[in-house]
Specification:
The chain has about 180 residues and is an alpha+beta fold. The chain has 2 domains: about 5-95; about 100-170. It is about 60% helix and about 15% strand. The protein contains 7 helices and 4 strands, in the order H-H-H-H-H-E-H-E-E-E-H. Strands 2-1-3-4 form a 4-stranded mixed sheet. A hairpin with a 2-residue loop joins strand 3 (about 145-150) and strand 4. Helix 1 (about 5-15) crosses helix 5, helix 2 (about 20-35) crosses helix 4 and helix 3 runs antiparallel to helix 4 (about 65-75).
């Protein structure tokens, strides 16, 4: 049984600079995942460790040591298939501990930088976050306005959402006939 949260907490505790260690882990995970079916066991782990240490030195990844140790241990234990889930768990714990809020802004049209800055400040006040990381996705079917996704919350200020709400309200009131 693989306990992703426990592995994530140990990794973060072993990292002197958590943000750099997480970046190093993400950078190294791509090549390692491509070897998923090929590499397993202790002997492969030693070869992998040498390869990863060389990549860390070549890439100038300061806190790559913790990431290398984690990846080698995952290979030795046969848990490499859990790496994507582990990285998500590490990100979630890191963001929670450092009060970082991820926000997905869905809009019908591209948004101006000034509007996004104002929106980011509003989200920071609303969530009491130290930092807000926004990503924008264009969804033409929203017709207008935008929709914000903050974790499990969804704030819908889109034209499509308003029309759907009106349709539900009309049906609840007994329907509407043209």
């Amino acid at each position: 049984m693989f306990a992703a949260e426990r592995w994530a907490r140990v990794f973060l505790a072993a990292s002197s600079n958590q943000e750099e260690a997480l970046a190093a882990l993400k950078a190294l995970s791509g090549p390692v995942l491509s070897l998923r079916g090929v590499v397993s066991g202790s002997s492969a782990a030693f070869r992998l460790e040498a390869m990863l240490n060389a990549a860390v030195k070549a890439g100038g990844l300061e806190s790559g040591c913790a990431a290398v140790r984690l990846l080698v241990l995952l290979v030795k234990k046969g848990f490499l298939r859990h790496l994507p889930r582990l990285i998500r768990e590490i990100e979630n714990i890191y963001e929670a501990e450092n009060r970082i809020q991820r926000v997905l802004v869905e809009s019908a049209f591209p948004l101006e930088d000034k509007y996004l800055d104002t929106l980011q400040e509003s989200v920071m006040r609303y969530t009491c976050a130290r930092e807000v990381r926004m990503s924008v996705r264009i969804i033409a079917s929203l017709l207008g306005g935008c929709r914000l996704r903050l974790g499990s919350q969804c704030l819908d200020a889109s034209l499509r959402g308003q029309l759907q709400k009106m349709a539900v309200d009309l049906q609840a009131a007994g329907g509407f006939a043209w």
